[in-house]
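Sample entry copied in:
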Amino acid sequence: MVHTRKNQARLTSAEKRRFVNAVLDLKRRGEYDEFVRIHVEHYVSDGEDGLRVAHMTPSFLPWHRRFLLEFERALQRLDSSVTVPYWDWTADRSPGASLWGSGLMGGNGRRSDRQVMTGPFARSNGTWIITEGETDGDFLMRDFGRPQNPIELPTKATLDWAMRDPVYDRAPWDSTSDGGFRNKLEGWTSGAGNSKWRNHNRVHRWVGGHMLGGASVNDPVFWLNHAFVDLLWDRWQARHPRSAPYLPEKPPGPGKRPLHGRICARFERMPPWDVKPDELIGHRGIYRYA
């Protein structure tokens, strides 16, 4: 049965409650932290050795599509009515957006230590304790807009800059690629200061706190951000029907170092699921967006 992912701004109170309760239940069972560990393990940057599948790589989009599906299926084992909502960050651009209400994500971190004090994921509730990460505290942290170095959420114009590019990705297939939809949407650029962060990356920077590193899954808003990114891949394909939906088609050969063995071509398998990007180009038989 095909299920529907909705814009978080259009969720009913009951839908918000069921989603939050399923996420909290997954956390209590210890399963949520496994998703954090998977993301940390597969967050491999340009400068590191080994295969890049999650970030700074063409498989950024299909890898996170499968990651979202695994998470959504885990939630649905607890409540079959639950789907992952998406956050359109070009429209809901302020700390006052309904997304940050006490019934969904909760609010910003307090100034002193960035600890989130409101909503279902506040440490004070005793239900959301950080066990996997790179910080000393066991509480969720946010720092909206990063006041010490202010940054705004992406605009519609910045997103359209990415959506206009008719090519899925370009060599060298990493964070330094000058063109290509994937890198523009992921948000790596050669700019300086906050201007270097675009789209997906800028959202992580704006939320701040735990959203800044490989352990960003510790903040449940991670899923809402990536559900929107997943939707945007759909929209890009519809906008460019004659473009290859994924590149590269073939892996760089042994003579193409340092690219050989670093990226997944269209028909190569992505860990940890042993699935190919080609198998994740479409999703219409599984879910849809409203």
User: Anything to note?
Assistant: The chain has a mean pLDDT of 95. The two ends are 16 Å apart (CA to CA).
